[in-house]
Amino acid sequence: MELLLKQYLSIWLVNFEFIAGSDGIPRPVCMVAMEHRSHRTIRLWNDEMSGMKQTPFPVDDSSLYVSYYATADLGCHQALGWDLPSALIDLYQLYRDDNNGMRPANLYRALLRYGVNEPSIAHDHNIRHMIMVDNDEYDEEIQSQTLYLCKRKVKAMEMLLPHLSPKNTRTLRAALRHGLDLQIISKMQHRGVPINNGPLKILRTWYPVAHPSIRKRLVKDVDSKYGVYDVMTFDIRRFNDYLVHQGILDWPRTEFGQLSLNDNVFSHMTRIYPELFELHELRVTLKHLPKIDLYLGSDGRSRDCPSPLRIDEPYSPRFVLGSTLWMQHLVRSRFNMSILYADWSDMELGIAAVLSGDEKMQDHYFSPDLYKMAFITGDGGVDSDSSGKIKIAQNDIKTVLLGMLHGLSNMALAYRTGRTEPEIRCLTHNLKKQFPRYCEWVHDNCIRAYAYNATYKGLDWAGYLGADLTPDAACIFPVQAARMDIMRHSRLLLDNAGFSMLGPTNDSILIELRIRDFDCASKNIRTLMAEASANVLGGFPLKIQTELLVEPKSQTQNGRRYLWETIWRTMYENKRALNVYSKDGTYDS
Q1: Could you give the angle at which helices 140-164 and 122-131 cross, rounded to 10 degrees?
Q2: Ramachandran region of residue 234, left (φ > 0), alpha (ψ -120 to 50) or beta?
Q3: Domains and CATH numbers, the chain
Q4: 87 with 65: CB under 8 angstroms?
Q5: Checking phi first, is residue 104 left (phi over 0); if not, alpha (psi -120 to 50) or beta?
Q6: Contact yes or no for 23/302 (Cβ under 8 A)
Q7: Tens of pLDDT along 182-241?
Q8: What is the pTM for the complete model shown?
């Protein structure tokens, strides 16, 4: 606390209570702000706040803004037209950094983590659900209880601040960087993503009607590759047999020994085993059937409204980038505008090459023939005469290098590459000779995670084995931590340069540009993103590619349009789903 008191003339602890509007923009209900030194308190109801053009407390460089889950409060600033704070620290971010790997906690559970006892929060939930009703008028009792709830949260933040306040200038700079990134994310949320409203109207009207047929069609088509459904029910025993047959033996399990089937586990395992992508998307799609309920403003943009009840998910399922991936086909640029898709090439391998200190692997990263190696034949020999075989071997090498990074077994790698286990063992043996420092680093990092119950600390991240960070995930954590640092630093540089970002998706960023500026802006964006990666990786810039977004990359690659096409085909076959289908292939309401 002493560092913060010396650095800033005033420290304001701020909390908003709000409801989510149908357009994805939060509607502030009340606000309580308290200055830490003087305990001066400002209490405002929604009609009082809406009449203010400026923030009722200083937000310049001499003042520190403190919040818990700041994107929600910053969203209220955006909705009211207030300035964003120059200096911000988010206690939730500091709590996650201090307890990374533990389950996310609300404000009161975070207090209990540090030994500060607080009464039950059941009453708070009752008040919050009362104000969740979209109503312009609240009686005096609800106003009084809501302001009391808001003030109580501010008091709780005051008790939590000494436990989480930065202890030195380095951690303070890291916390402020987090705060700047949260402001950029808040701008992205408020900006929204442009949507093609024609097909959305058709989906909203006819998708619920046709969903029984769509459900049967999707299960029939997708499950033919997996065989894990018993008619329309997901069969855990069949899924277990499928995993054993595919050599996927590291699937997380519950405390009772059953396969864990929650969405977070499936999402994480899909990144390791891409062949499960279609099954994961099918499960998510069936879960959200038959409702198409995106946040959509009058300007035709989908927005992600921060929720006080959702502090462990990056996006709301009512936001187009947070919904099922096939819904992202609704993203379309506006007239005279374009959407640029920018991402890093072989990001995980490039980061791992730097973190491991393997100079030979770093050189191969920039080679035109990435990780080129002779084709491994069944008898352990080599055959480099056929360029086609070399190309296949190159893909296999990338797969195996990434598999080693994720801690995959030889059996799993054999299924992923379509090769035999002896071939994989031979390839792994050759890779250990060619990239020895990388292979040693991967092994040592996993051992360190198991031995010390913690793993790599990046620029601002640390990982501790716990409820959310399993030993298998700890193997990839150093790379993921550096990836998050690169993504965050890229957002800072792009925002400072004045680019309008729409949102990050996996390892990519969507940016809205005027069509006439596309070529020049594309070059500048590649330069800034390469600079961001070089700043994080000690001067090693990752490769960047940019192109005009025609349709979402996560859907089109490897023929993954199947969900979108199947849904429209089934609605069309029902003869009730499509009112108008124009001759040029575009949808119209």
Answers
A1: 130
A2: beta
A3: 2-191 (3.30.420.10), 194-331+556-588 (no CATH), 347-478 (1.10.150.20)
A4: yes
A5: beta
A6: no
A7: 899 889 888 888 988 888 887 777 777 677 788 888 888 888 889 999 888 899 999 999
A8: 0.79
